[in-house]
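Follow-up to my post from last week.
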Amino acid sequence: MLNNKSYKFTIIDIAVIVFVIAAISIFFLRMSSTLDYKWEWDAIPSYFFFLDTATGELKANILVRGFATTVKLSFWATLIGFLLGTLSGMMGAKGSFEQRFISRTYVETIRNIPSLVLVIIFYYFVSSQFLDVLNLDKYLRNSSQTVQQIVGLLFSGPDQINAFLSAVIALGIYEGAYVSEIVRGGIISIPNGQWEAAWSIGLSRQKTFFLVILPQTFRKIAFPLAGQFISTIKDSAIVSVISIQELTFQGMELMAATFLTFEIWITIAALYFILTFSFSRSVAFLERKYALK
Amino acid sequence: MKKILCLCFVFLLILSGTLSAQESIIETIQKRGVIRVGMSTFVPWAMKDKQGNLVGFEIDVAKKLADDMGVKIEFVPTAWSGIIPALLTGKFDVIIGGMGITPQRNLKVNFTIPYDYSGMSMVAHKARAKGFSSLADFNKKDVSIAVRMGTTAEQSVRKYMPNATLKLFENEGQALQELNLGRVHAVVSSAPMPIFHALKYPDKLFVPLKENFTKEPIGFALRKGDHDALNYLNNWVLNMHAQGFLKEKKAYWFQSKKWEDLVK
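User reply:
Got it. Predicted complex:
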């Protein structure tokens, strides 16, 4: 495979680096001259961490808390999307007529609704009817400090739990529709010979599917799936419309209070980049590790 | 089996509906031990300080209310354009967010008696709005004005400057950015924010009108049909007027700039 090729620093690399640096400096030059924008970067670090004068401890500030919420949100939404999508994709590829019908209905409905509308409808109508009846926030408020801390670490505090869950579920359902198509495509792409070979050694239909077909499918779809997960991380920004305190919402609140529009947007973009890029690099690493030699 | 499940769901829905209709939020809040307050960032009504805590005029008012009720407080920061639907669907108990009492809003929610009065003020770009000094100067087709979506500022521009072109933004920050870049002639918003902003960029911006051009009452908003809560909150506001609490807080947040170090 191509992975063993050693990198050589060529003239093209230098050209690319020069080009990128030039583009960034032109952007900032234009910003300060044409747009007459006064940069005030010095306040930004304090929105990550601040020194609590009362206790002398370094505490996480708005942006870090927003970042943590985005990570939690993306993690659970990805998990739900993955499970739902895999199930629906399996049903869509090899299921009975009814199963294929359910899978198609799910995918086509969700894929053809704008994500923004789905999140808002889910929050105002669906979750008001189901999540609020469960009174999760009430149980959480009455539970012990440790339980509250653990739930807060994994999900969110009692003040946001209903909104957080409805956002996670809506995002999960949304991403699941795309994962479903990726999984379905992956299963279909496995040649028929694999099925026939498995049957000929006496494996049942189910065993064939789970032991022979599915592992090959996941190896094939690792990259498109990773792409979908990265887009989940970025899509999580849309739940700011239902006031989940994730990175984008916190950033917008900060902008409303400080009017440091561009500084904060650029910082937010950098934070998303750190999250998505480290994720895509780790997927690439796994891909290399488990690649067929 | 399916039928039973369906029936159970319907029953649950009806139950939850009737429960919330009978009980006043005052009792709900007491039982829960927490009052949930919907608000949105408006400088200097409510904003995050350097430590990420909420501060501002509304925040002080809401905290005092919670204190007097003997409960804890939870703020639910909400996008302004969606704040009324969020109240109606029970995401929080009451809006304490500098909401102007207007007949249109009053059709959907109940308001308490005003705890404050606010007015619309304007900040304009020196080069683009040169020599403008009255509403009539701005009421022209080629004049564009930026406002925050869904606010009474939007309504006031439609009413007093119907010929001007409106540019709507989700946040005040974006509207002010547009003004700083000189893409609009002016930004209209509740006083005193426009004046503060003009003071911050004196070489670029100015305040064209000497006085606020509207006066609007500000009240707490709550769901309809809850007379107990309305009565409680009305009397609370009366009390706070009488004690001078509201006047004192207003002087601190609106007439002084002592709080500026808290935010930046």
